[in-house]
Amino acid sequence: MTDSHSDELRRDVAQKRRELEELEARVRKNEREELDRYWFPQGFYTAYYILSGLVLGVIASWISLALNVAGAALVGEHPLEILRVYSTILGGAKTAEGSDAVVLMFALGVHTFTGAVCGAPIHVVYSRFFVAVSLGRRVLAGILLGIAMWLVNFYGVLVWLQPLLHHEPSSYIVDHMPAWVAVLTHVAFTSSMLALQPLAIFNTRNYPEITTRALSESSEDGSGNAASRA
After folding, report:
1. pLDDT in tens, 82-136
2. What is the pLDDT of residues 34-90, one digit of tens each?
3. With 0-12 CB in 10 A as exposed, 13-18 as middle and 19+ as buried, what is 112?
4. Which among 32, 60, 77, 144 could bridge 192 via Cys, Cβ 3.0 to 4.6 Å?
5. What distance in Å separates the CA atoms of residue 187 and residue 49, rounded to the nearest whole number?
6. What angle do CA 9, 13, 18 make, to 5 degrees?
7. Would you call 91 helix, strand, or coil by DSSP?
8. What's the structural domain count of the chain?
């Protein structure tokens, strides 16, 4: 009688365990279905940093443009003198002879476009490799990057591209832009990117709590199954 009663209790316990496992499986399924409603990146979110880098690049280019205007005024030059030289990138040497409105339009277009194009890869690199380093090393990296960009842009691209585009004997901007001004302009851009970079760091804590919890439990469930099979 006692053995029969014990066997019956064991069967009841086994049945309850199966029911509990079924309930747990249903809960996990529901959580996975809830998780599928959301999307979040796995690892470094490159697409986000490219997009945010485009935006930061535009802002940094405007900051650099404003510093150009202020710097020209400080050294006694016409505020748009440097911008006249920059405006020739798109329009050729004849653009420098245009009205102030035309010069400003071309210069703003050049800075905005090149700032966005250059800002995206810079932001990706900064966010991927220079987040955990000291501010001093990041600033040094920004200065070196600015100098490298100046060399590449002026003597690797503009020196042949501008004459090719506008059928001119030489690059107007390379010939008329003082080297120290060009270097400071590029360094101002990269330094602005460095200063703005923390404003565009992707924060996974903004995602709903359900995603983190479901992902964690799903991972634990997978580990548990692997252990059971082992």
Report:
1. 778 887 887 778 877 777 777 778 778 888 898 999 999 999 988 888 777 777 7
2. 666 666 677 788 889 999 999 999 999 999 888 888 887 777 777 777 778 887 887
3. middle
4. 60
5. 21
6. 145
7. helix
8. 2
Query: What letter represents residue 82's amino acid?
Result: I
58 and 162 in a single domain? The answer is: yes
Residue 215 covered by a domain: no
Q: What is the DSSP letter of 177?
A: S
Q: Rounded to the nearest 10 degrees, how much is the dihedral formed by the CA atoms of 193, 194, 199, 201?
A: 100
Task: Output the CA torsion 58→76→187→109 (10° steps).
Answer: 20
SS3 of 92-116: the string is CHHHHHCCHHHHHHHHHHHHHHHHH
What pLDDT score does 146 carry? Answer: 92
- Which pair of structure tokens corresponds to residue 8? 């019956």
Beta-carbon neighbour count of residue 76 at 10 Å? Answer: 6
25 and 89 within one domain: no
pLDDT for residue 229 is more than 50: no
Question: Count of alpha carbons within 13 Å of 146, Cβ hemisphere only?
Answer: 25
> Which pLDDT value is given to residue 142?
83
Q: Is the same domain home to 15 and 98?
A: no
pLDDT at residue number 56: 94
Write the pLDDT tens digit of every residue in 9-18. 777 777 888 8
